[in-house]
Amino acid sequence: GFFGVPILSAIMPDHPAVAMYSAICSLVMNALAWTIGSAIITRDKKYISWRKIVFNPNTLSAVVAIPLFCFNILLPDRVDSMVTLLAQFSTPLCMIILGMRLATVPVRSLLSDHLPQWIMLVKNLASPLLAFALAYFLPVDGYIKQVLFVLCCCPVANVVLSFAEMLNEGQKTAANAVLLSTIFSLISLPVMCLLLPFLA
């Protein structure tokens, strides 16, 4: 989600609603992270519950934000500037956390551990191509298809590492997957974006 917003804003400056689509995607991704993702990391099914879907920071903030957006309710200037600052800081903060973790990862371990490499291939190549095939046939406006496709082209989300750290499980694999996927996205994302005109 946070990676997708600046990319979508740069690719589609004439469609300010792309930020909303990215926010919805991020909301779904985080709901999955609080439930299925946490269950996969810990191998404990207790995380798969409606309570975890509803009562997590992302869903609760969306419950507040969506009515404000839909009814065009403006926040007081001080609150608005604080929220804007937090929004602008989310990407750098995630990158700082990722950098701190990756500073402890030897480069050799990136090449010796094959699971993060498979994750990177699925996330950066297979997932976008599948999304392209599905989006191509959707009966919606072309730019919505393009938004969905670009979001699927983004690298493994830093939320994977955040949850691994929070749950104290699989930090090395998560860090390696995020790093490899982010590095490879410098090549894969521009190449995949060459397919965007076919979804217009």
Write the layout of secondary structure elements.
Layout: H1 4-11, H2 18-42, H3 50-54, H4 57-70, H5 77-102, H6 107-112, H7 114-136, H8 142-153, H9 159-167, H10 171-193
Helix pairs in contact: 1-2, 2-8, 2-9, 7-8, 7-10, 9-10
Q: Which features characterize this protein?
A:
200 residues, 76% helix, 0% strand
Describe this structure in words.
The chain is mostly helical and 200 residues long. 76% of the residues lie in helices and 0% in strands. The longest helix is centred in the middle third of the chain and has 26 residues, at 77-102. It is globular, with a radius of gyration of 18 Å. The two termini are 22 Å apart.
Structure, briefly:
The protein has 200 residues and is mostly helical.
The whole-angstrom Rg is 18 Å
Shape: globular
Structural class estimated from helices and strands: mainly alpha
Give the total of beta strands. Answer: 0
State the helix count.
10
> What share of the residues does DSSP label as strand, in percent?
under 5%
Stretches where pLDDT is under 50 for at least 5 consecutive residues are: none
One letter per element, helices H and strands E, the order comes to HHHHHHHHHH
- Biggest sheet layout: none
End-to-end CA span = 22 Å
Mean pLDDT over the residues? 84
Helix content: over 70%
